[in-house]
Amino acid sequence: MPLDLVTVPCLSDNYAYLIHEAATGATACVDVPEAAPILAALDERDWKLSHILITHHHHDHVGGVAALAGATGARVIGAAADAHRLPPLDEAVAEGDTVRVGMAEGRVIDVSGHTMGHIAFHFPDSALVFTADSLMALGCGRLFEGDAETMWASLSKLAALPPETLVCSGHEYTAANARFALTIEPGNAALVARAAEIEAARAAGRPTVPSRLADELATNPFLRADAPEVRATVGLPDGPDVAVFAEVRARKDRF
Ligand code: ZN
Ligand code: FE
To answer: Is 114 in the active site?
Structure first.
């Protein structure tokens, strides 16, 4: 049975996610920008938190871990590579490892680039992937610690997941991402339509995440290094994909 998914807005533009397995009652929170809205979301549903899954060390993703773990006794799971700079972990994982939430199994994917040691959690049976600041709706995280090659390798792994997968990313940056994406691929009809949907969603106060991987593949400029219009825009019609990606990322930094 697929996991129930709840998107929890936190701080000014962060998202945490709750996943809940009805059969066992197991409930995990992915990233903890702050504890209070997550405790309220659990309370509302009468769910008891069993696991906290951490994607990367930035404060806006782990700032509430100690408080939430303290209040719930949940088991804290994060990247072994980042254990020295994460809140205390009960379980340290690396790419290829499996995390269990009740009977549900999540596969750990190394998605370094934004930070080194950033991981994603893929729950194939529920078609969910938690990507935080790696692949984002119409965007990708800034390259703070990794280089373009590293991020491109990470994004390529995520792009290869089943297209129906829901991408649960860490921020509400989508409207700004859409404005940038339109400068890279203005002739992409799917992108133009999605940008209009995003404007409407934000005007109505609705989150733009999670998003469908198929839509990211069709519209996210950071996944579209092979698209002729993207290549033409950045002046690399015949360059390698990673060079096109690097130039798109560099332009976003200046946007
Ligand atoms: Zn971050
Ligand atoms: Fe972040």
So the answer is: yes
Provide block-wise average pLDDT over 10 residues at a time, the chain (255 residues). Answer: 96 98 98 98 98 98 98 98 98 98 98 98 98 98 98 98 98 98 98 98 97 98 98 97 98 97
What CATH number is associated with residue 172? 3.60.15.10
Q: How far is the CA of 56 from the centre of ligand 2 (A)?
A: 9
pTM reported for the whole predicted model: 0.98
Domain range spanning residue 103? 4-254
Note if 61 is an active site residue.
yes
Is 56 marked active-site? yes
DSSP of 88-126: PPSEEE-TT-EEEETTEEEEEEE-TTSSTT-EEEEEGGG
CA of 187 to the centre of ligand 2 (A): 30
Query: Is 57 an annotated catalytic residue?
Result: no
- Which residue of the set 20, 58, 118, 122 is catalytic? 58
Strand partners of residue 30? 17, 53
43 is catalytic: no
Q: Could you tell me the distance, in angstroms and rounded to a whole number, from the CA of residue 200 to the centre of ligand 2?
A: 24
Cβ burial of 228 (10 Å; 0-12, 13-18, 19+) is exposed
Q: Into how many domains does the chain fold? A: 1
